[in-house]
């Protein structure tokens, strides 16, 4: 289980309060969609969870282990895809990029070989798995980056706008993968601007507005019969 307690972060003097007292938890097997307009604090929160940034105050724990006391545990158990930052090596093939990441994280060959076969099929990578990334379109790079993120089989998965740059078929593949992660007991947090992706994958929706939680509700509340609308929580004062 992932637990965030009173997370605050600022970048003074221009942005003194990017996040303010953000608290929520995600149960194993639960998938939470992080929603908010640009500048709401989503990327900052994701970078804190990925240990790129440290919060000014508050705590993060995974399976009862505090990030401050054992940062290596959270890092080793987390797989993160950052929006617009594939960080792939252009001179390597898709396969080589994915395997390099697996080896870098100490994943045994028999384990990453099994995962690679499954991910290649799920993300429709087989046609170009041995092509150099330099020749890829943006969508192809995104699919490869998603496979690289998941090759370590992390317990906690963070996907920052995973469908960015993907065509409609690839988007459906991503939705299927996100749903499958929850079914396998993974703790999943993903950010998205796509209503279909949110409604199709999430169990719960956390909406950030102005650095604070404006709403934390089951996803069913945002279906037509639920009566809630995302934009009701994103309007500027």
Strand content: 25-35%
Number of helices: 7
The number of distinct β-strands equals 10
H and E order: EEEHEEHEHHHEHEHEE
Q: How can the largest sheet be summarized?
A: 6 strands, mixed
What would you call the shape? globular
Determine the N-to-C terminus distance.
34 Å
Rounded Rg: 18 Å
Class per helix and strand makeup: alpha/beta
**What's the overall average pLDDT, rounded?**
91
Give the helix level as a range of percent: 25-40%
- Strands of the widest sheet, in order across it, are 6-7-8-3-9-10
- Which runs of at least 5 residues are low in confidence (pLDDT < 50)? none
Structure report:
32% of the residues lie in helices and 26% in strands. It is globular and about 45 Å long. The strands form two sheets. The chain has a six-stranded mixed β-sheet with strand order 6-7-8-3-9-10, sandwiched between helices. Strands 2-1-4-5 form a four-stranded antiparallel β-sheet. Helix 3 packs across helix 4 and helix 3 runs parallel beside helix 5. The protein has 237 residues and is an alpha/beta fold. The protein contains seven helices and ten strands. The two termini are 34 Å apart. Strand 4 and strand 5 form a beta hairpin.
List the helices and strands and how they pair.
Layout (H helix, E strand, L loop, with lengths): L1 E10 L3 E12 L4 E5 L6 H8 L7 E6 L2 E2 L4 H6 L1 E4 L12 H11 L4 H14 L15 H13 L5 E5 L7 H16 L3 E5 L3 H7 L2 E6 L2 E7 L19
Parallel strand pairs: 3-8, 3-9, 6-7, 7-8
Antiparallel strand pairs: 1-2, 1-4, 4-5, 9-10
Helix pairs in contact: 3-4, 3-5
């Amino acid at each position: 289980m992932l637990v965030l307690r009173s997370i605050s972060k600022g970048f003074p003097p221009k942005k003194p309060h990017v996040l303010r007292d953000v608290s929520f938890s995600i149960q194993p097997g639960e998938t939470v969609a992080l929603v908010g307009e640009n500048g709401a604090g989503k990327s900052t929160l994701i970078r804190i969870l990925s240990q790129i940034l440290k919060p000014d105050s508050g705590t993060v724990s995974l399976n009862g282990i505090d990030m401050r006391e054992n940062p290596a545990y959270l890092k080793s158990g987390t797989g993160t895809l950052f929006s617009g930052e594939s960080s792939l090596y252009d001179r390597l093939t898709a396969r080589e990029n994915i395997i390099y990441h697996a080896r870098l994280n100490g994943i045994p060959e028999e384990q990453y070989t099994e995962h690679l076969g499954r991910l290649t099929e799920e993300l429709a990578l087989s046609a170009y798995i041995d092509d150099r990334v330099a020749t890829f379109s943006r969508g192809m790079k995104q699919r490869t980056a998603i496979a690289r993120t998941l090759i370590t089989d992390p317990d906690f998965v963070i996907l920052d706008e995973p469908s960015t740059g993907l065509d409609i078929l690839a988007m459906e593949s991503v939705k299927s993968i996100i749903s499958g992660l929850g079914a396998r007991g993974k703790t999943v947090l993903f950010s998205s601007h796509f209503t279909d992706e949110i409604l199709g994958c999430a169990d719960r929706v956390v909406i950030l507005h102005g650095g604070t939680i404006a709403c934390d509700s089951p996803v069913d509340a945002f279906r037509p019969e639920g009566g809630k609308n995302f934009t009701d929580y994103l309007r500027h004062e």
